[in-house]
Amino acid sequence: MTGAQSPAPPQREPELAGQTVVLIGGSAGIGFETARRAMAEGADVVLTGRNPDRLAQAARELGAHRTAAFDASDEAAVEQFFGDLSAPIDHVLITAGGPEYAPLLEMDADQVRDAMSGHILVTLVIARCAASKMRAGGTLLFMGGTGGRRISRSVGIVSAATDALPPFAAALALELAPVRVNLIAAGFVDTPLSATLLGDQLDERRRELREKLPIGRVVGPADVAALAVHIMINTALTGATFDIDGGQQFVSA
Description:
The protein has 253 residues and is α/β, with parallel strands linked by helices. The protein has a single domain, classed as NAD(P)-binding Rossmann-like Domain (Rossmann fold). 42% of the residues lie in helices and 17% in strands. It is built from 8 helices and 7 strands, in the order βαβαβαβαβαβαααβ. A 7-stranded parallel β-sheet has the order 3-2-1-4-5-6-7, with helices on both faces. The longest helix is centred in the middle third of the chain and has 23 residues. The model has no long low-confidence stretch (mean pLDDT 91).
């Protein structure tokens, strides 16, 4: 007598099938992992980055067919990139750029302007250029952080810049509607950029976080990618800030 066979689990339809995701800063780290996850959900992806060689390598690893090498802070290059896109797009993730940590009194006027507005200006230029190409219900998604919420001498002006991002995302969501706008606020993420910044201190930082974070492990780019793709899929989400730091902002880590 043979036992009854268990029914096969139902097939789940890919939730980004037929959609296009643009990764601004997609050759490594969070952008790369988001591209991988979006493709697993059926999306077509367009990878961009500053380094053509690294971008080409990322595309080979992912099996992505569309790339563009340019600096996201170059307004003319951003305009040309979006102007050259022939098909409508659904989602844009911006991971390019990052905060500048320096003592306030050691910063000149240009450094202060860039720290306070640089990230916002890059996002705003991309939003302007992408808006006419994006389908209703898609999302413009950009990165902030949770570390700057705790004011300290070590983060300097980053705290002020961090506070500006959530209301900026909310206001932009109203202007771009029905395209959605959302902000991901991350803590330490174990990316190649983190490795470059920390050098031989990286292993010690990982050990410290594993000991102190409530989740008992270090946040990786795949964790942030999972959140990014969820925000793309869930069309009820707009104007919001989503924290992902493993509880880092609540402990001394």
